[in-house]
Amino acid sequence: MTIRALEKVSVGQNGIGAFILQCKRMDIHYCDHSGSSRGMNIFIRSMLQKFAASHPQIEFAVSPRPRKHPVMIGHYINGNQKSICVKNMEPTEILKKAELLRDASGEKIKRVNKSVKSINPSVRGIWSPYHGKGITV
């Protein structure tokens, strides 16, 4: 007797079959003259090109904002955006913040009551008194 595995059609679930990066655009604002943008200016000149080349699915927009602190804004596919002020940070710290924006989902932080979320909440299924031995009512 040969044993055959059951064939199952794959079901598309978010994050299982293919990974879709949630961050679609990153805006980088800086000032040419302020001291709080010194690290951002170095980051733009030395690290941003390599970071952008390694993430072609993200659109990068760099624009000056005179007399303002440097800011990085991540725009996500769900329509939300997150902004991080990077004033007086070193270029390596700014790179970590850019990676944080890249890896974020764009969802607002909310309290989770259940520790596990699942499509199938119970392995046993929904209990009913009509299943099993056939109780008469």
Total number of β-strand segments? 4
Distance between the termini: 44 Å
How many helices? The count is 3
Radius of gyration: 24 Å
**Which fold name corresponds to the CATH topology of the domain at 24-103?**
Glutaredoxin
Helix content: 10-25%
- CATH H-tier superfamily of the domain at 24-103: Glutaredoxin
Helices and strands, in N-to-C order?
Answer: EHHEEEH
CATH architecture of the domain at 24-103: 3-Layer(aba) Sandwich
For the sheet with most strands, the description reads:
4 strands, mixed
CATH C-level name of the domain at 24-103: Alpha Beta
Mean pLDDT: 84
**Major sheet strand order:** 2-1-3-4
Strand-pairing-aware structural class: alpha+beta
Principal-axis shape: elongated
* Parts with pLDDT < 50 across at least 5 consecutive residues: none
Beta percentage is 15-25%
Domain Ribosomal protein/NADH dehydrogenase: 32-105
Subcellular location: Mitochondrion
Protein name: Large ribosomal subunit protein mL43
Organism: Pseudomassariella vexata
Short account of what is shown:
It is found in: Mitochondrion. Residues 32-105 form the Ribosomal protein/NADH dehydrogenase domain. With 137 residues, the protein is α+β, with helices and mostly antiparallel strands.
Characterise the protein shown here:
It comes from Pseudomassariella vexata. Belongs to the mitochondrion-specific ribosomal protein mL43 family. Keywords: Mitochondrion, Ribonucleoprotein, Ribosomal protein. It is found in: Mitochondrion. By secondary structure, the chain is α+β, with helices and mostly antiparallel strands. The protein has a domain at 24-103: Glutaredoxin (3-Layer(aba) Sandwich). It is 21% helix and 18% strand. It has helices at residues 38-46, 48-54, 91-103; strands at residues 23-30, 59-64, 71-76, 81-85. Strands 2-1-3-4 form a four-stranded mixed β-sheet, covered by helices on one side. The longest helix is centred in the last third of the chain and has 13 residues, at 91-103. The two termini are 44 Å apart. 14% of the residues are buried.
